[in-house]
């Protein structure tokens, strides 16, 4: 699994932890994380619960925390940049100054 590879690469950092499960039901207190990385996950979440999932991530971030979203954006596989932007806006996540939504070629 990808989580095993990531844990192996980052095991020297004691302040990094990993969560595997359904975003909305993970046991995470509000305001816990400085950074959350969501890597190729969004397109696997059913459309009708994507907003609730993004809101759960937003709540898990500390004030001024950062959410990194990497997502394939092909029509045949992934989530479009416009759809991602709408989802972020609706969930209360805002782009930081200088951040951009860049289409992925994956």
Descriptive keywords:
106 residues; alpha+beta; two-stranded parallel sheet; two-stranded antiparallel sheet; 4 strands; 20% strand; globular
Q: Structural class of the secondary structure composition?
A: alpha+beta
Uncertain residue segments: none
- Give the CA-CA distance, first to last residue: 19 Å
* Spatial extent as radius of gyration: 14 Å
Tell the overall outline.
globular
Query: What is the overall number of helices?
Result: 3
Largest sheet: 2 strands, parallel
Overall average residue pLDDT: 84
Order of helices and strands: HEHEEEH
Strand order of the largest sheet: 1-2
Portion in beta strands: 15-25%
Q: Which range best describes the helical content: under 10%, 10-25%, 25-40%, 40-55%, 55-70% or over 70%?
A: 25-40%
